[in-house]
Amino acid sequence: MKATATTLLLGIVSSLAFSVQAETVTQALEKCRGVDNSLQRLVCYDRVAKNVNQYAGGQESISAVPRPQLAPANAPEATMPPPPAKPSVSSTPSAKPTVDNNATEDIAFGMEQKRVREQKEASMVATVAALSSTVRGSLIVTFDNGTVWQQSDDTDLNLKEGQKVVVERGMFGAFYAKVEGIKRKMKVKRIK
Which residue ranges are recorded for the region named Disordered (predicted)? Predict the structure, then answer.
């Protein structure tokens, strides 16, 4: 009985002594990365994040743990090429300031559609060359420049051949046809 209690007490004391040795956050993250089960790995990372102040150097800023270079699956002993060298910065100012491409891409992120929209024309003026209608009664307008537009709503503009029409770009990719002097617009979509 005493031997069992002594062994148990010795085991508890040794585990406490082992846990008192504070490991760094980086070492704890390395241990977590070594866990194979994804759920257990996530729990390990959560535990490290929750108890970050208990680790040695926990108050310091945490830098990213360096990732090991992985060999491709089809080449067992292939080595990864070294990362590209960073350009050295000279102490003399150059004539042209260098622009970081990643910084300009970050600034332009989400603006691609806006740039395309700024480059497009806002309206088009054309003369009606021919008028026809669909089976459902929608108007089909052929302009002198060869474009063909179909009516998308039930607005009636009473268009006639030879009449000048302005097709304007609207919100959300919509287009509207209007005749000067008339305050109504007809929603249209381009067919050809």
Answer: 71-101
